[in-house]
């Protein structure tokens, strides 16, 4: 999830609202600054707290691009990394899938990692 910035058009809209409310220019500027700061604080809170960004321990490695985080019910898949898939019941698996899993395990299992969520 990407944070949205406030552009000059939105600030003009806030200033127009201030005029319609009968506020002076200084009060309009104060209102605009308040709205911008409030927007930033709300975006930071919801982006970090609700999306779950933060530091986690890796408890298990599923394959070369998927891990399980301690205290989290679902798997975490890396964005922008595509490794060979592991053997499944109906598939023999891709070449080097075991090596990719072992490398991922050596890099992160039992370690604390910083996670930032984004849309895939």
Detailed description of the structure:
- This protein is an alpha+beta fold.
- The chain has two domains: about 10-50; about 55-115, no CATH class.
- Helix content is about 40%, strand content about 20%.
- The protein has three helices and four strands; from the N terminus they run H-H-E-E-E-H-E.
- A four-stranded antiparallel beta sheet has the order 3-2-1-4.
- A hairpin with a 2-residue loop joins strand 1 (about 55-65) and strand 2.
- Helix 1 (about 10-20) crosses helix 2.
- The protein starts with 7 loop residues before the first helix and ends in a 5-residue tail after the last strand.
- About 5% of the residues are buried.
- The model has no long low-confidence stretch (mean pLDDT about 80).
Task: Pick out its properties.
single chain, 120 residues, alpha+beta, 2 domains, four-stranded antiparallel β-sheet, 3 helices, 4 strands, 18% strand
Provide a quick synopsis of the model.
This protein folds into 2 domains: 8-50; 54-115, no CATH class. The chain contains 3 helices and 4 strands; from the N terminus they run ααβββαβ.
